[in-house]
Amino acid sequence: MAPERRPAGATAAPRFVVQRHRARRLHYDVRLEIGGVLVSWAVPKGPTLDPAARRLAVRVEDHSIEHLDFEGVIRAGEPGGGDVIVWDRGTWEPQGTDDPAKAVADGEVHVDLHGEKLQGRFALVQTGRPQAGGGREQWLLVHKRDRFAVPGWDPEDHPRSVRSGRTNDEVAAGPEAP
User: Fold this and answer.
1) Among residues 56, 40, 23, 45, which one has the least CA distance to residue 156?
2) Tens-place pLDDT, residues 21-74
3) Rounded to two decimals, what is the model's pTM?
4) Of the residues 6, 122, 161, 169, which has the fewest C-beta atoms closer than 10 A?
5) Domain count, the chain
6) Residue-range definition of the domain harbouring residue 89
């Protein structure tokens, strides 16, 4: 099923998706809809509601809006080969800026997430520029102390897709959606 297309000038809240992706290594792809694309970070340990946790987030290439609902298996040998589930999804609001694309370019963006698993204020803060040789931007993802904060909250305790209810193992065994 294709994600909802938005007409030019639409003012609906921007969407986000978090995909649990087992490629070479398990990671979570955090994607924010900004300017007609999904601005993306790979988060090896996954996002958390624990405000004491600091998660590495590596900036990766933007993805098309069509990736919002992608759940399935990317063939081995292709970039990102492995199984993917829609671990969380919802809408988000920028905080402290009217231009989230500029905030990302400046290296710090604060957002309120309204997801099925993730709720509350998150900050993505760039900690370093790419080094010579093709390195990627390093960022930190943190959940702020707010009413949605849950000390010790671990994304691995919530392994099911919000789209299909399946786990990565179930998607890998039968990639077609039920």
Assistant:
1) 45
2) 999 899 999 999 999 999 999 999 999 999 999 999 999 999 999 999 999 988
3) 0.89
4) 169
5) 1
6) 15-152
